[in-house]
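chain below, 69 aa
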Amino acid sequence: MVREKRQRTLAKITSAVQSNFGSEYRIEVFGSTQYGVDGQTSDLDLVVIVSLPLGHRVISTSQDVSGPG
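prediction:
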């Protein structure tokens, strides 16, 4: 059940990012979810990967978007 919810969440986030910023952006999971050891209380670690031609500068930012608690 947890895995299916995470896959649906990943699909929604990927769709939203690509709709707003383009298909050169993709979302991937890392951490416990990628290794299959995540549980009901595990967070969902995501990274945005941008495929840009050489010569473009990418600015990296990080933001905690966790909910209450």
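The first strand starts at residue 25 and ends at 30. Residues 2-21 form the longest helix (20 residues).
thats it, cya
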